[in-house]
Amino acid sequence: MRDVLDELLAVWRDGETAGVATVVRTMKSAPRLPGAAMLVTPDGTATGSVSGGCVEGAVYELATDVVSTGRPVLERYGVSDDDAFAVGLTCGGIIDIFVQPISKRTFPQLADIAGDIAAGHPVATATVIGHPDESWHGRHLVVWPDRVAGSLGSDRADQAVTDDARGLLATGRNATLTYGPDGERLGEGMEVFVSSFAPRPRMLIFGAIDFASALARQGAFLGYRVTVCDARPVFATPARFPDADEVVVQWPHLYLQSELEAGRIDRRTVLAVLTHDPKFDVPLLQVALTADVGFIGAMGSRRTHDDRLGQLRDLGVTEEQLERLASPIGLDLGARTPEETSVSIAAEIIAQQWGGSGERLSRLPGRIHHDQEAGDELKEQDGVGPDGGAARQPGRVEPEAVVRFH
User: Fold this and answer.
1) pLDDT, tens digit, for every residue of 391-401?
2) DSSP 368
3) How far is 41 from 56, CA to CA, in rounded Å?
4) Would you say the C-alpha torsion 373, 377, 383, 389 has a positive or negative sign?
5) pTM of the predicted model, to two decimals?
6) Does 394 sit behind a cis peptide bond, omega within 30 degrees of 0 on the bond before it?
7) Tens of pLDDT along 294-333?
8) Residue 74 and residue 177: Cα distance in Å, rounded?
9) Using CA atoms in the order 277, 268, 382, 196, what is the torsion angle rounded to 10 degrees?
C-alpha cells in the first residue's frame, strides 16, 4: 500500500471510495511480492501494480466492481498455464489478490497510518481476507508497538493477531496468517494479511572513501537509510556523499556502540566496513560481530583479511562470530571501479538476505525466487526458531507470503 498511499489518501480525504488490490500470497514464480498494491480511483485512474502488467486489466475490472458492491473479494490468478495466458500471467505463477473498498467509513485510521509512515514510525495493518462469516471480510486492525485500533471481529482474534503482527513489524515483514474462526492458534478458517510499515532498514558504511560514495548510491537505490561514518572530518562531509541520509564524524566503533545502545540497530541493518585500516576496522568489527544485524562485510585484500582475523582473535572474538564476517566483501563479478564494486557488495547483501547462491541463473535448475524468510517463519511455526531454539506458536504462516519490507 505504501506505493499508492498518497493517491489513496487524497481519495479518502475527499470522502470518496477507492478500490485497492493487494497481493497477499504468491506461489511458484510471481512478478510482484506480497504487499504490492494497485489503486483504482473514483475517476477510473489506476495507480500501482500487482503483477508487473500481467493481470492488471482483470484486477482493474474487479476493483471497479468491488467499489460498486462494497464487498471485498479474494481472487486467485494463474491457477493453470491456460488460465495464466487467458489473464496474462505468462510467468506461470499463482498470485492471490485481495481487493477491498477503502473509504473513511471502511478504514477510519488511514490518515493516522499515513502520518506514521511519513514520520518513520512503525505501524502494521491486519486485514481479514478469508473467514466463514463473510461479514468479517475486509475488517482491519491497526497495530503499533504500544497500542491498537479497530477490530477484526472478536477480542480473542484481536489479541492473537496483535501479538503476531508485532513480531512481524519488528522485522519489517508482511505475511498471511491462518487461525481458527475466532483467532484460535493452529486452527483454520480465518486468514489475515499483515502488512508491516517499518522504518527503512539501515545501511551503515564506515570509511569516507570513493567506494563508500558509490555504495551509498546503491544503498539509497535499494531503499536503505544510508549513514556514512568516518573519524576524519576532512573526508566525512555531506558534499562528498550526497546520496547518504546522514554523514557522521566519529570513531566508527563508538558510533556503532551508541546506535546499538539507543536501539536504532535491528536485524535488517547492514554494515559495510570499507576503511581497511586496522585502527578503525578492528575495534569496529569487535563491536559489530556481537550485534544482531543482517550483514557484516569488510573490504580488504586476502592478506589484510588474515591479519584482521588474527587481531580479532587476540581480542577474544570467537570463531562462530568470525564466521559472520563477509570479507573480502562482495561477490566475484570482476569489478574494478567503485561503481562496479558497489554492485558487487549490494549483490552479496541481497544474496545473503534471500539465500541466493550468486551463481548465474542460466546455470541453475529449479525455481528463480528464494524464500528464506518464509522458511524461517515456517520453522518457528513448528516450534523451532531460525537459530534452532524454541519459538512461540504464531498463527500459521502461508508459504511464500513473507517478505522483507523495504
Assistant:
1) 334 566 654 44
2) S
3) 14
4) positive
5) 0.68
6) no
7) 999 999 999 999 999 999 999 999 999 999 999 999 999 9
8) 15
9) 180
